[in-house]
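Entry 0007
Protein: Mannonate dehydratase
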Amino acid sequence: MEKTWRWFGKKDKITLSMLKQIGVEGIVTALHDVPNGEVWTREKIRDLREYIESYGMRWSVVESLPVCESIKYAGPDRDKLIEKYKESLKNLSLEGIHTICYNFMPVLDWARTDLAHPNPDGTSNLFFSHAQFAYFDCCILKRENAEEQYSQEVLEEVEKLKQTMTPEDDHRLVENIIVKTQGFVNGNISENDEHPVELFRQLLDLYKGITKDQLRENMRYFLSAIMPTCNEYDMYMCVHPDDPPFPILGLPRIVTCDDDISWFLKAVDDPHNGLTFCAGSLSAGAHNNVTELARKYADRTWFVHMRSCKVFPNGDFTEASHLGGRADLIELARIFEKTNPNLPMRVDHGPNMLGDLDKGYNAGYTFLGRMFAMGQVQGILATVDRELGINQK
Ligand code: DNO
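Output (structure tokens):
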């Protein structure tokens, strides 16, 4: 696979010359300064592409070309926004970029409750706790009837949290769930918003009463509308699985498991409609057999996130070592190398280690942690390639 790295543009503290030194071949990025829903112009795309190329790398994948909420909940302006999306796709193609990662998660792109959950070895990882999330939902957000969605065990944990959480803890939880994990991925809420919880409530209201079937239908509508453009300009759309891969906040999630993946691939049965195989997101659900999913969907996968999660008996999960957890990254490397040794791959997140936390990197996107993971994955790939008789680049 092509060794790529998510880079957040010229303002990223991690520079392209640093990445060149650690074996990165391709860059995964987006026009982070263009507001959601606006057309990406050829000039802006070209400027960034040429900058990346001046460091001897290529712009391999766009992550993400954001799909506006209004397209997801079928707002009155969705057709207008879809036209703009098509325009951006066309401009990217004319600049030689053909792989587009996006997601169809309502409101919240990805969710974690703890961004520095300590490991025994002194590193820390991103973590998701059902009890903390339920506490956020029921006691901070105060979503109507939220309690109905949680098990008795989780609600008992929430009661305990009510006794122990300080205002500072509440603040940190809000930051973790709706600010720090969202802003930098072109989310709806940024560090500059003064009332993130209020804003978040308004966003959730947009989806009031939406069912899984309706959300699926909205995804089918979007994909069908852009497919002629994807065909004409050879654009490979790859949806990112929902992270975590189960419903949260009373909202449906539609890219969480075998049945969901099979549904959206068939709903618009065109090779340009494909998957980002995020082993991290998929392995966070105990219902997923990640290796089987990779075997089944490798031929419609256009981008891979090599990451693994450990799931605890109560469903909480932590981001594991790239050599551990539920996703067997060695077997996944075999499957994807056999299917297409040029498939772009990134290690996704890495642990916080050796001072990463003091640097203020985006949550999950550390330098040393990701570099360490990248070294491990490079080793896996070199071994698998030797096994398969594939020449290393
Ligand atoms: C988080 C990421 C997501 C992902 C988007 C793709 O680290 O996996 O933000 O980039 O959902 O649209």
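Curator remark: The chain has 14 helices and twelve strands. The first helix runs from residue 16 to 21.
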